[in-house]
Amino acid sequence: MFSRIVVLSTLLTVVGIALEVAAQTREEKVREDRRKVEAEGFWIYNNLPLAFETAKKNGKPILVVLRCIPCEECVKLDDELVEQDEVIRPLLDKFVCARVVSTNGLDLSLFQYDTDQSFAVFFLNADKAIYGRFGTRSHRTDWLGDVSLKGLAAAMQGALELHASYPANAKSLSAKRGPKPDVASPELYPSLKDKYTDSLNYADNNVVKSCIHCHQIGDAQRDMVRARGEPLPESLLFPYPHPKSIGLILDPNQRATVKAVPAETPAARAGFKAGDMIESLAGQPLLSIADVQWILHQTPATGGEIAARIKRDGAAQDLTLELGSGWRQADDISWRVSSWGLRRMTTGGMLLKQATAEQRQDAGVADGKMALHVEHVGQYGAHAAAKNAGVQKGDILIAFDGRTDLVREADIFRQGMSERKPGQRVPITVSRNGKQIQLQLPIQE
Prior knowledge:
Blueprint: H1 2-22, H2 26-40, E1 44-45, H3 48-58, E2 62-67, H4 72-84, H5 88-92, E3 96-100, E4 119-124, E5 130-134, H6 149-165, H7 170-173, H8 207-210, H9 214-227, H10 234-237, E6 249-250, E7 258-260, H11 266-270, E8 277-281, E9 284-285, H12 289-297, E10 304-312, E11 315-323, H13 339-347, E12 350-354, H14 357-363, E13 372-377, H15 385-389, E14 396-400, H16 409-419, E15 425-432, E16 435-442
Parallel strand pairs: 1-3, 2-3
Antiparallel strand pairs: 2-4, 4-5, 6-7, 8-9, 8-10, 10-11, 12-13, 13-14, 14-15, 15-16
Helix pairs in contact: 13-16
């Protein structure tokens, strides 16, 4: 009887704690995260100057985790890193570890990364040389196929090796830093400067409201270009292309090891094969898929050649990856947080998916021609532009701006952002119940 009471009491306690955690507001979660991390004393919390100062004194490399707060998946991953993984935990002791939970005041000349992520890692020297990056996202259901704890451990070990060879290898690392950014830190972007400062505001329960999230940097970059009336460059529309878009399927458990190479892709034509370990790309050593994406991001939309050094069956071999004009457009960007802004600007709030064979047949659209099913139509504000123009959920979009060859939602984004300006209207055609309907859709800021 006593044991049953203890079990019941314990169960009620656990349930009570769970309900208390579930009831926490976003503000409370952020404050609790800070309290917990600072109490444990392992991570340097939101203080990069202290991280660099510490590294200069002890000679260790720096590991910086940029993560959204409170992102439940990121919190879970951080807990696993510190408390559970037997390989990573001792590796962390060899770094100065810093956790950055907002981008307010972030040095954008140093920290350049795919801002549609909610978890990104930088490995650095105390003099701010970058050893490499870790972390990527594709669709939210696929990202575990791109990153793993084993992959992070491999990247950390690689960073330690590069650190041991520094500064003799400094030349090969120089291109890991990008060009000078448009602004020094996020709060200086025109669309953000009147809303945010260079630090979080812990007074008056305003931490959450004062935080600049990663995706807001990308949004601000696009807004700035649009405000100048310029076409959006493909580097902003298709940022940090996923390696699979050029045929490189990488093993998430390794630094940069090829898992598969689909036929008729740039990677296949270059001669990459499953099992190849990519030691360097464009002369840069690689620690993870994020380093590959960094190099692809720096490659012009017009294409070019990228030198690759691989190890195959224990022997080094050189390959040349050739990317043609418009190569970025093969990447899928529909999963990105930034796509919601693109939908507001180009589709008037429509969420578009490729039509099924049955839907295509009902609409009378031939294979290879545009047939995009309207999965959702925004109801409010600028996202209601398509609804106000007459679009309905369930319509099949079969023409946009006079074109019927835009077969993906990403192709619609590219047409609207590159060929049209805010304030203009584009003709669209939708199929509804077997009838074609002509409408006019506004391009918006």
